[in-house]
From TrEMBL, chains A, B:
Stated family: Belongs to the glycosyl hydrolase 38 family.
This protein's name: Alpha-mannosidase
GO biological process: mannose metabolic process
Annotated ranges, domain Glycoside hydrolase family 38 central: 354-428
Source species: Theobroma cacao
Catalytic activity: Hydrolysis of terminal, non-reducing alpha-D-mannose residues in alpha-D-mannosides
Keyword Secreted: no
Enzyme class: hydrolase
GO molecular function ontology, one term from the record: metal ion binding
Lineage: Eukaryota, Viridiplantae, Streptophyta, Embryophyta, Tracheophyta
Length: 1010, 1010
C-alpha cells in the first residue's frame, strides 16, 4: 500500500458536509449610502474603432489571431445580462460599433434595448462615432464625428449623452474640455492618461478631479468637471472578470473548496480605501472593464453581483452599480469646490523616457489624407445643400462615416497597425468617390442656367484632381490643340471672397488662361521637376495600378478668385504665351547684382527671402511692407530613434524617444535653383537624396510656403529616423512658444516647464513636443514668427528663437504600447517596397508683434479649406455662353465678417439645415478682430426663406437653451461663489436673425426653411 | 499634401453602398437529407473533472492563470443559446460538473433545463460523474461512477443516456466497450485516441467505425457500435468558435468589409468531403467543441447557424444540428454491415516514439489510494446496508463522489498537475473520514447483542488503521499491561468464507492472540525494520503533522478467518508467548545444511522459494504439491526517462519514453536476511539505498508476496527514472502474454505485434506495455506464471519467459501533452522535500498449465477486498461475554459459488437495495468454474423478506428488459445475418429467486424488501 496525501484533516468538512445547497439570490439593490464610502462600479468596455484590427474586424470578431476581440459579443451579451437584474448598469461609448450592431438586431431586440436605455440601465455616453484622438484631430472633425453619433442617439433613442469619456487618448486637449464636453452639454469628462508626474502630484493633493476651463476666451461659461482615473481605465488589479481572466473570483459556494468571501471582501475594501485616500468626497469610481471586455457580460456581472452583496453585508464600504452620470451627480450633490485646471494635459508621458509625442507625426500621409478629406467634406456638404441632398445617394454620408472613424485615437493618431491604417484610407477613398459624385453633379447642376437654352443639353461631366499632390491630374493633362477649352470651376468654401494662385499640370507650354469674362489673365509656367515626375509615376502604379498615360511638362499657375461659398470659372486653351511672362527657358534667373554677390533675394512681392548662394541656404526674411526683417535659418535634421536596447523603450508609433540628433548632410548632390515668375518665385533645394524642398513666395501673399518631399527615409544603416525641419532666428523668446489646441485656441508653452507641477525632465526634446493642428509661433518684443501646417504634426521650440516640426518618421522598433509593429511605412510595386515618401507643406510668416493673428486665423482657414477645383472640357466658347460662370451661396452683397468662419453648412436627413458659425479669434488676440461679430443669417441664405432658426448644442442633439438649463454649475476652489462673467453672443431675435459671436464662440443652429 | 493609400478603387462599394441592412434570420431547420452527404454538427464541450485545475476550480472558473476554464459559464450560457433557436442542440457529458451546476440553479432555470432535455435539445450522454480513464480504472469503480451519474439523470430527468462518449481517454479498454457501453444500454460509443498507425489504416479502409465485441465470453450479446474520430475531438481545423478563437468567422454582412460567405462555404464543403472520403455511409460527424469550450455558447451557435444556412443554400452537402444519438440512428438506418473489432485499443501512441504507457504507472501512491478506497467503499456499503442508511449522514455518499471523481482520465491516470492530484486525495480523505464513521457505527451496532444485557452500555468506539502500509496503527500500539484486551473485528466483504494472515504493529513482545472462543491461536512476531520505522515517522509528520507517540517493535501476525459478508472477532492480550513459536531472537535462521551450501529454501508450506545466498537472489520457485518447479530470477531495473533533447519527446506523466535500461546496482550496502516462523517466512533484501524488498511465503498459501519499498528515487544525476521489477524464467512463451482489461477479461498480447495492423515499432519497450489492474501472466506448454497487483500499474513481457511491472516513476521533464509539469512527486517536511516513496505489493504464483485461473480470479478478489479490521479496547473478557463475536450477512449455511463475486450491495436513497453479482471467469478459463453459476438471492438476504427483484441495466438506470428491447442490432461485415448464440443466465423466476450467471456475466438488480 502506498502513501499519499490521504489524511489531510478534513477541515473543509465544516462547510462540505453541513451546508444544503440552494439557489443564491444576490442583493444588488444598493444605492448611494450617505454616511459611507461609496464605490461606484461602472461596468464598461473600451472598444477601439480600429487599432490592431479594423473596425469591421473588431465588430464581427474576425482576425482574432491578432487580437481576441468581438464587439458583437459585447453588445449581444450585455442585453440578457442587464435584463437578468434591473440593478445592473452598463455604459456604451463607441457609436461606430453600436450602430453596426443596431442595424443587425431584430425589432424585438431593438425594442428591448430601447427600454434598457430608457430605464438608464444601458447608458450611451461620449456618444461620438469613436473616442476621437485629441492631438492629431482638428476641432471641426471632432465636432462632426461627435454630431454624427449624438444625432443618431437622439433620433433613435431621444437621449442626449451626459458624460465625456475620453479614457484612452494619449493626452487631453483644451478643446476637448471646453468645446467637445462643455459645449455639447456634458456634465463631466473622464479620462485616464496624464503625465505620470502630474498624476503623482494630483494623487497627493487629491486633485485628480478638477474643474477644467479649457478656453481663456470662454472661461467659466465652458468649464467642465473633469476626472482623471487614479491609474488607468481598468478595474483595480485583481478585479478583472472577462472570460478566462485570472483575477480571483468570489467563491461563495460553501459546498466547494476554496471558499474565499472574507478574503475577497477584504481586498475590495482595501482597494476602495486606498482610492478614497487620493479622492475628495466619499465617492470613488471603479472602471469595471477595459479593452473589448464584456464579450460574455455575464462573467463580470456575476462577480459584481457577489461583491455588492457581500461587501455591503460586510458594511465597511458601500458598493453599488453605477454609471459616470450617477457618479457625477453624487459628486455634484456634495456641493464641494474643486481645484481649477486650465490649458491642457499635453504632452503625455507614462513613465520616464516615454513621451507620447511621436504620434503627433506618425503616419503623416494618413494625417494629410484625413485633413484633405475633412476639408473636402466641409465643401461637399455645402454643394450637397445647394443641390439638395439625396437620401438614396450618392451623398456625403459614407465620407462622413469614414472621416468619423478616422478621428479615432488609433486612426489619425497613426498608432494602428498598417493593415488598419490601410482600412481607414480605404474607407476615406470610398467616401471620397461617392462624395466626388455629389460635388460633380452639384456643380453640374449649379453651372446650368435654367433661363438659358442648355437645359436640354447633356449633363456635364466634371472631374476632380485629388492627386495634385503627386502632380497627377488627367483632366488637366489634355491635348487642347483641337480647339477644346479646359473649363476650371473654382469653388470657394469660405465665407469670404478670396484670391489664390492655382497650379495644375499641363502637357503643353502653349496654353493661356482666361477669366469668366473671357479676358486672358496672367499665368506662369513652371517646369515639372524630374523628382516630382518620378514620384507621380511610382505612386500611380502603386496606388492606381497603372502608369499615367500622359506626361505633363509644366505646372500652369494662375491667380483665381471666387466669391464666398461660391464659384468662379476659368478657361484654359491653346494659345501663344507672351514672352515676358514666362521669364526665360532657363527659369534660373539671378539679377546682375546677385551674380556678383553671394546673396540672392527671392519673392515677387513684399516678402523677400534672402539666400546665401554658396551655402544654398535661407538667411533672411524681409517684409518690405511691415519693415519686418529677421535673420532666419531653415534646415532639416533627424533624430535617430532609440532602439530600446537600453531600457526597452524604443521610439515608435506612440513614443518619441530620440537618442541622437543629426543634421542632414549633403550627399554631394545637393542643389540650389531659383525660378522666378510674375506670380511666384520658387527656390528648389535638393537637400540630399531623400529630401527635396521647394520654397514659394507669391506676389500678393506675405508668407513663404515650404513644400517638402521627404523619403524614402534610408534605414540601411539600421537606424530609424524622425525627420524634422528647423527654423532658427535670433529672436529672444525666453523659452516660450505657442501651439494650437486641436486647431483652435493657442496655448502658451514654456520649454522644460509645466504649470501644474515641478517637471523633472529626462527627455529635453521629446518632453517639449506638442501637437500642432493649425500652427505654432514664437515672439519677442517686436516680432512674431508663425508657422502654419497642412496637417497635424508634432512641433516644438527646442531653443530660444527656434521652432521645429517633425515631418516624417520611419522607425524599426515597436515601442511596447501594444501596436506590436515598427512604424515603418512602405509603398510597394510588384512586391518591391520602399519607404513611404511624404510631400507636404508648411507656411512661414513674420509679423510685427501683435499683428500676426490675422494671418494665422484667416490664412489658417484658407489652408484648411483650399479652393475645390473641378474640370471639364468644352468646345470653343460654348460653356461661357451657356452656363453660369460665377455663383455665391450668400447674398451677392454679403460676406461673412473676417473673424467668422462657417464651419458647417449641411442639409440634414429631415431637410432642415445645420449651420455652425465659429468666431476665429481669441480674446485679446487681435485688436480689431477679437471682438463680438455678427452674422446676418438671412443674407447667408439669401436664396431661401427661413421658417425657424433653433440654436442647438454644439453636437446639435438638443436645444441650446435646454442644455444650458440643465447645466451643472460646479464650484471652483479658492474663488468666490460667482464665476467671472464671460461675454457671449446674445439670443437670436427670430425676426432679424442676426447671430452674435463672441471671441472663440461657436454657435450651432438648425434652420428650417419654408 | 502627402500621399497615402487613398485611391484604392472602391470595389467594396458594390456591397457597401447598395445593400440595405436588415435583421438576418438563419434557416437552421435542416434534418437529414437522404440523397446528400450529411454533416452532423455536434456541439459539445469536453470538461475534464480535474486536470490542470481542480474540479471545483474548473467549475467556478478560478485559478484561470493556469487555464482559462469555467464550466459554470458553459452551462449558464448554453441555456439561452438553446432557447434562442429550437433547432440548436448540445450534449453534456460530465455529471460531476452538471450536478454542481444544477444545485446552483433557480427553480425557473431548472424547469427550463428539464424542457430542453425533454425536447432533446440538451442531451446528457456518457452520463457518469466523469469521463473515466480506461487503463488505470478498475471495472468496479467504472460501474460505480457511471451508476452514480446515470441514476441522478434518471431520477432528475427520467432520461437514460444513449451514447458512450469517451473522447479523451488515452486508449480504450474492452471492458469499456462491452460492459460500460453495451451493458449500460448505450447504442454507440465514440472516442478519439487510438494508435496513429491503426488510425491511418482505418482511414484508408474506412474502418474507423466498427462493431466492437470486447468480451470473448459475451460476444455479440455485448457488442457496441464504436466510432473513432478521424483526428481528435475538435472541429475540423478553422472551425473553432470559442470567444477569441481565431478561426475565420462567417462574415455575411455585405455592409462590412471581408465578406467571405463563398470562401467559408467552400472550405466547409471541402472538409466535409474529405471526411466523407474516409467514412462509410453519407453521414459524417463534426465534433464542434473541445476542452472547456462554449463558455459563451452564443459564439459557436452564431457561426453554426450561418454555416447551416449558407451551406444548405449552396446545396452540395447538407449540414444540420445533430447529436451522437441522431448520428447513430442515421448510421443504423443505413442498414449497413460494419467491420468487426475485438480486444481493445491499447497501447495508444499518437506519433512515433510517443507511447502513452507511462500513465499506467504514474502516481502509484494515488493509484494505490484509489484502489484502497474502492475496496473500502464496497465493504462500507455492505455495512451501511446492514445498519440502515442515513440520508443526513454520516453515509458513504461523499466517498462515492470522491471515488467517482478519482476515476477521471486525468485523476487515477496520474496525469493531473500535482495540486490537482492532492485535491483528489483530499476528497478521498474526506470521504474516508465520513465513511469510516459509517463502518465504525455499523460494526458497533452489529456487535451489540440485542438479547444480552449490554443494550444499555455505552456505544463502542471502533478505530481503524488506514495507515498500516506505513506500519502506523495507534489502536494496536497500546499498552495491554493493565489487563486490557485489544478487540480486533475482522470483516470479510467477500461472499466466501476466508482465512488470511493479519499483521498489526505492537509495542510489546509479550502478547498473545485468542479467537472468539477464547482459545489462544498461533501467532508470530516479526521485528519492525528500521527502514519501516523511518518511513512511518517521516510520513506521519508529513501527512498527519505529528510524530507518532508510540514506537512499535514488532509486527504481530496471526491467521484470521471470517464468514462470507460477515465478521469474526479476535482478542489480543498480554501473555507469555511459547518460546518455540518465536523462533529465535536473531530471527535469521539457516538450517545446518544451508550453512554449508550457497542455496537456501524459504517457505513454511508447499511453496518454496530457493535463493542463492552469495548472490542474495531468488533462483527457483517450487510448489511441492503441484510439483511445479521453475528457475526464476527476480530483479529491479530502471529506465532512464528521455529528456526530450532529441525530438522534444521526453518521458513524462503520460508517455513512457525510455532511452536506456539500467539494472539497479548494489551501492555496497545490499543485504539479504531471512526470517522464519510458523505462519510465514520473510526474506528481506536491501537492494540499494532506495529499494527495499520483503518477500513473504505463507504456510497455507501457494504464492509468494513481494512487498517493495521504492524511493526516494535519486535524481541528483539529472536523470529521471522509471523503476521496474522483472521476473525472468526459462519458459518458452513465444512472445505471448496476457493482461487483464480493467481488472476483468484477460487479453492475449503478442510482443511487437498488433492484430489490427502491421506494426512499425520504434519503442521496443514502451510499445509493448499494457495497463494492469488485476494481473498478467505467461504460459508455456506445461506451466503458467501469474503475477497479481495491488493497484493499477504498467506491465509487459519484454523477453520470452519474462514479465515486468513498472512500480514507480520520477521524471524531470514534461512530455508535452498539456500537463506542463514534470512527474516528480515529493513529500515535504518543513519545506524540505524528498522524492515520494512507494510501498506496494505484488504476488507471484506458478501453476500447472490450465490450473492458474482459480488463483488469479479468487485470490485476485481477495487482493481487491482485503479484510477490513476494526479495533477497540475492552477490559478483561467483557466483550467476549456480552457481544456478538461472529456474523454473516447471508444465511449461515450459504456461501456464494466460487465463481461469483458480489460486487455491489448497497442501500439506495429510496430504501431499495442495489445488488450486483459478477461471474469471475471467462469462457474456457477453468475447467470447473467457467460454467453457469447460480446464486440464491433468498439466502443472500436471509435476514430480510424480499418483495420484488427487478433486473436492471448495469448502471441501474432502467429495467434490463426495457433496455434489451430498445437495443440496436448492428450487422457485422462478413458474417451471416445471425450472430453466434451466446449463453447468458436466464430470467429470474420471482418465486425462487435464483440468479444464473454465465461466464463473465454481471447482473444488476434492484431489490425491494417488505
Amino acid at each position: 500500500m502506498a502513501i499519499g496525501a490521504w489524511i489531510l484533516i478534513a477541515l473543509m468538512c465544516v462547510f462540505w458536509c453541513e451546508v444544503e445547497s440552494k439557489y443564491m439570490v444576490y442583493n444588488t439593490t444598493s444605492k448611494i449610502a450617505p454616511g459611507k464610502l461609496n464605490v461606484h462600479l461602472v461596468a464598461h468596455t473600451h472598444d477601439d474603432v480600429g487599432w490592431l484590427k479594423t473596425v469591421d474586424q473588431y465588430y464581427v470578431g474576425s482576425n482574432n489571431s491578432i487580437q481576441g476581440a468581438c464587439v458583437q459579443n459585447v453588445l449581444d451579451s450585455i442585453v440578457p445580462a442587464l435584463l437578468a437584474d434591473k440593478n445592473r448598469k452598463f455604459i456604451y461609448v463607441e457609436q461606430a460599433f453600436f450602430q453596426r450592431w443596431w442595424r443587425d438586431q431584430s425589432e424585438a431586440v431593438q425594442e428591448t434595448v430601447k427600454q434598457l436605455i430608457n430605464s438608464g440601465q444601458l447608458e450611451l455616453i461620449n456618444g461620438g462615432m469613436c473616442m476621437h484622438d485629441e492631438a492629431a484631430t482638428h476641432y471641426i472633425d471632432m465636432i462632426d464625428q461627435t454630431t454624427l453619433g449624438h444625432r443618431f442617439i437622439k433620433s433613435e433613442f431621444n437621449v442626449t449623452p451626459r458624460i465625456g469619456w475620453q479614457i484612452d487618448p494619449f493626452g487631453h486637449s483644451a478643446v476637448q474640455a471646453y468645446l467637445l464636453s462643455a459645449e455639447v452639454g456634458f456634465d463631466s469628462l473622464f479620462f485616464a492618461r496624464i503625465d505620470y508626474q502630474d498624476r503623482a502630484k494630483r494623487k497627493d493633493e487629491k486633485s485628480l478631479e478638477v474643474v477644467w476651463r479649457g478656453s481663456k476666451s470662454l472661461g467659466s461659461s465652458s468649464q467642465i468637471f473633469a476626472g482623471v482615473f487614479p491609474e488607468n481605465y481598468d478595474p483595480p488589479s485583481n478585479f478583472n472578470y472577462e472570460v478566462n481572466d485570472d483575477s480571483p473570483i468570489v467563491q461563495d459556494n460553501m459546498e466547494l473548496f476554496d471558499y474565499n468571501v472574507p478574503e475577497r471582501v477584504n481586498e475590495f475594501v482595501a482597494a476602495a480605501l486606498s482610492q478614497a485616500n487620493i479622492t475628495r468626497t466619499n465617492h470613488v469610481m471603479w472602471t469595471m472593464g477595459t479593452d473589448f471586455k464584456y464579450q460574455y457580460a455575464h462573467t463580470w456581472f456575476r462577480q459584481m453581483d457577489k461583491f455588492i452583496h457581500y461587501v455591503n453585508q460586510d458594511g465597511r464600504v458601500n458598493a453599488l452599480y453605477s454609471t459616470p452620470s450617477i457618479y457625477t451627480d453624487a459628486k455634484y450633490a456634495t456641493n464641494k469646490a474643486w481645484p481649477l485646471k486650465t490649458d491642457d494635459y499635453f504632452p503625455y508621458a507614462d513613465r520616464i523616457n516615454a513621451y507620447w509625442t511621436g504620434y503627433f507625426t506618425s503616419r503623416p500621409a494618413l494625417k494629410g489624407y484625413v485633413r484633405t478629406m475633412s476639408s473636402y467634406y466641409l465643401a461637399a456638404r455645402q454643394l450637397e445643400f445647394f443641390k439638395g441632398r439625396s437620401k438614396v445617394g450618392p451623398n456625403t454620408d459614407s465620407l462622413a462615416d469614414a472621416l468619423a472613424i478616422a478621428q479615432h485615437h488609433d486612426a489619425v493618431s497613426g498608432t494602428s497597425k498598417q493593415h488598419v491604417a490601410d482600412d481607414y484610407a480605404k474607407r476615406l477613398s470610398i467616401g471620397y468617390e461617392e462624395t466626388a459624385k455629389v460635388v460633380e453633379s452639384s456643380l453640374a447642376s449649379m453651372t446650368r442656367s435654367s433661363s438659358k437654352a442648355d437645359s436640354g443639353s447633356p449633363v456635364t461631366e466634371f472631374h476632380q484632381c485629388l492627386l495634385l499632390n503627386i502632380s497627377y491630374c488627367p483632366p488637366s493633362e489634355v491635348d487642347l490643340s483641337n480647339g477644346k477649352n479646359l473649363v476650371v470651376v473654382v469653388y470657394n468654401p469660405l465665407g469670404w471672397k478670396r484670391e489664390d494662385v492655382i497650379r495644375i499640370p499641363v502637357i503643353d507650354e502653349n496654353v493661356i488662361v482666361k477669366d469668366s469674362g473671357g479676358k486672358e489673365i496672367e499665368s506662369q509656367l513652371l517646369p515639372l521637376q524630374n523628382a516630382s515626375l518620378a514620384i507621380r509615376n511610382y505612386y500611380s502604379v502603386a496606388y492606381l495600378g497603372k502608369f499615367p498615360s500622359a506626361t505633363p511638362k509644366y505646372w500652369l499657375a494662375f491667380s483665381a478668385s471666387a466669391p464666398p461659398i461660391g464659384f468662379n470659372t476659368y478657361f484654359i486653351s491653346r494659345g501663344k504665351r507672351p514672352v515676358i511672362a514666362t521669364a526665360s527657358k532657363s527659369h534660373v534667373v539671378y539679377s546682375s547684382e546677385e551674380k556678383r554677390s553671394d546673396v540672392i533675394e527671392v519673392g515677387p512681392g513684399d516678402v523677400k527671402l534672402v539666400y546665401s548662394k554658396n551655402q544654398g541656404k535661407l538667411i533672411r526674411y524681409i517684409n518690405s511692407r511691415t519693415m519686418v526683417k529677421e535673420s532666419v535659418r531653415q534646415s532639416y535634421s533627424f533624430y535617430s530613434g532609440d532602439d530600446g536596447s537600453v531600457d526597452e523603450q524604443a521610439s515608435g508609433a506612440y513614443i518619441f524617444r530620440p537618442n541622437h540628433t543629426y543634421h542632414t548632410r549633403s550627399d554631394g548632390q545637393a542643389s540650389f535653383t531659383v525660378l522666378r515668375g510674375p506670380l511666384l518665385d520658387e527656390v528648389h533645394q535638393r537637400i540630399n537624396s531623400w529630401i527635396y524642398q521647394i520654397t514659394r513666395v507669391y506676389k500678393g501673399k506675405e508668407y513663404a510656403e515650404f513644400e517638402f518631399t521627404v523619403g524614402p527615409i534610408p534605414i540601411d544603416d539600421g537606424i530609424g529616423k524622425e525627420v524634422v525641419t528647423q527654423i532658427s532666428t535670433h529672436m529672444k523668446t525666453n523659452k516660450t512658444f505657442y501651439t494650437d489646441s486641436s486647431g483652435r485656441d493657442f496655448i502658451e508653452r514654456i520649454r522644460d516647464y509645466r504649470k501644474d507641477w515641478n517637471l523633472e525632465l529626462n527627455q529635453p526634446v521629446a518632453g517639449n513636443y506638442y501637437p500642432i493642428d493649425l500652427g505654432l509661433y514664437i515672439k519677442d518684443d517686436s516680432k512674431e514668427l508663425s508657422v502654419l501646417v497642412d496637417r497635424s504634426v508634432g512641433g516644438a521650440s527646442i531653443k530660444d528663437g527656434q521652432l521645429e516640426l517633425m515631418l516624417h518618421r520611419r522607425l524599426l522598433h515597436d515601442d511596447n504600447r501594444g501596436v506590436a509593429e515598427a512604424l515603418n511605412e512602405t509603398v510597394c510595386v510588384q512586391n518591391k517596397c520602399s519607404g513611404l515618401t511624404i510631400v507636404g507643406k508648411y507656411y512661414l510668416r513674420i509679423d510685427p508683434l501683435g499683428e500676426a493673428a490675422k494671418w494665422r486665423r484667416s490664412f489658417g482657414q484658407e489652408i484648411y479649406s483650399p479652393f475645390l477645383l473641378a474640370f471639364t472640357e468644352q468646345d470653343g466658347d460654348e460653356w461661357a455662353n451657356s452656363r453660369i460662370l460665377s455663383f455665391s451661396g450668400m447674398d451677392p452683397s454679403y460676406v461673412l465678417p473676417d473673424n467668422v468662419a462657417m464651419i458647417t453648412l449641411q442639409e440634414l436627413d429631415d431637410g432642415k439645415v445645420l449651420l455652425r458659425l465659429a468666431h476665429l479669434y481669441e480674446i485679446g488676440e487681435d485688436k480689431d478682430l477679437s471682438v463680438m461679430a455678427s452674422v446676418q443669417v438671412k443674407k447667408v441664405f439669401a436664396h431661401k426663406k427661413i421658417n425657424e432658426v433653433t440654436e442647438m448644442s454644439l453636437s446639435a442633439n438638443q436645444g441650446r437653451a435646454e442644455m444650458e438649463k440643465k447645466r451643472l454649475v460646479w464650484k471652483v476652489e479658492g474663488s468666490s461663489g460667482e464665476s467671472p462673467k464671460v461675454v457671449r453672443g446674445g439670443p437670436v431675435d427670430p425676426s432679424i436673425l442676426v447671430v452674435e459671436l463672441a471671441p472663440m464662440e461657436i454657435r450651432t443652429f438648425v434652420i428650417e426653411f419654408h
